[in-house]
């Protein structure tokens, strides 16, 4: 189980960042007193616009950022005190992942498997399974720079899952992918749930969240605005689907579409 309690993350802005964001403020509160619980075996969605705080929340969860305030625990392990134990349990994938262009998928998979403490037999068995599912086998000896965008993303997913983690965290997993590759990724997330894994997905694609997630948290300006199943969110807002529910909440918070 993942518990986020009163998470706040504050950044200090330099002059360049102030100009870029058109603000005179010297600090930015990316996440503001966020609390939620993710239960084992569910697909949990973080939904919000770009800049809402989704990625910052996930990076704090993945131990890549330290919370300014609040706590996050993963199966009882604190992300600050027990960061190594947390990393053993999770996989974190962002669409911004950069793989060395001169290495092959085969080499990268084996390299990261060894980093995870896996032996050759474990790595080979896992590689065979994931490469077959994502259609990587015929491309395993090509350099990353020679692969298509979709194939690079599938390789990144396979590499991130090398150690068969209990908790899978994907930040915008289908962003920039063609419809066929995106469908393969979403189908695999469902497969992970069938295996009893916990999956956390951030997205701004309403249809994706609506079809995929057991529960959805809507974040606006770094704050948790609503949390529940699709039916609960629709009932709360009087909307007919997730997109309408989101925009109703957006409107209630003084935002314009």
Structure notes:
Helices cover 39% and strands 25% of the residues. It starts with a strand and ends in a 5-residue tail after the last helix. By secondary structure, the protein is of the alpha/beta class. The chain is globular and about 55 Å long. Helix 4 packs parallel to helix 6 and helix 9 crosses helix 10 (242-252). The model has no long low-confidence stretch (mean pLDDT 89). It has helices at residues 15-20, 54-61, 83-89, 105-115, 120-134, 149-160, 179-194, 206-212, 230-237, 242-252; strands at residues 2-12, 27-38, 43-47, 69-74, 77-78, 90-94, 167-171, 198-203, 215-220, 223-228. The strands form 2 sheets. It has a 6-stranded mixed β-sheet, sandwiched between helices. The chain has a 4-stranded antiparallel β-sheet with strand order 2-1-4-5, with helices on one face.
Query: What is the count of helical runs?
Result: 10
Uncertain spans? none
Helix and strand sequence:
EHEEHEEHEHHHEHEHEEHH
- Biggest beta sheet summary: 6 strands, mixed
* Biggest β-sheet: strands ordered side by side in the sheet: 6-7-8-3-9-10
Number of strands: 10
**Rg over C-alpha atoms, rounded to the nearest angstrom:** 19 Å
Mean pLDDT: 89
Global outline: globular
Strand content: 15-25%
């Amino acid at each position: 189980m993942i518990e986020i309690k009163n998470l706040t993350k504050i950044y200090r802005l330099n002059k360049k960042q102030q100009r870029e964001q058109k603000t005179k403020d010297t600090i930015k509160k990316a996440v503001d007193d966020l609390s939620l619980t993710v239960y084992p075996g569910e697909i949990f969605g973080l939904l919000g616009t770009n800049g809402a705080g989704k990625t910052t929340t996930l990076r704090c969860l993945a131990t890549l950022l330290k919370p300014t305030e609040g706590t996050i625990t993963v199966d009882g392990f604190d992300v600050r005190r027990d960061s190594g134990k947390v990393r053993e349990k999770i996989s974190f994938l962002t669409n911004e992942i950069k793989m060395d262009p001169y290495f092959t998928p085969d080499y990268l998979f084996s390299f990261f498997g060894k980093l995870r403490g896996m032996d050759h037999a474990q790595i080979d068995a896992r590689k065979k399974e994931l490469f077959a599912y994502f259609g990587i086998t015929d491309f395993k000896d090509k350099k990353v720079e020679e692969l298509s965008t979709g194939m690079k993303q599938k390789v990144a997913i396979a590499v991130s899952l090398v150690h068969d983690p209990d908790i899978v965290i994907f930040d915008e997993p289908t962003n920039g992918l063609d419809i066929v590759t995106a469908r393969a990724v979403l189908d695999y997330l469902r497969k992970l749930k069938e295996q009893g894994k916990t999956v956390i997905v951030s997205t701004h694609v309403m249809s994706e969240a609506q079809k995929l997630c057991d529960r959805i948290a809507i974040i606006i300006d770094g704050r948790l605005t609503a949390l529940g199943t699709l039916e609960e969110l629709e009932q709360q807002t009087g909307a007919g689907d997730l997109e309408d529910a989101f925009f109703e909440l957006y409107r209630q918070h003084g935002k314009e579409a």
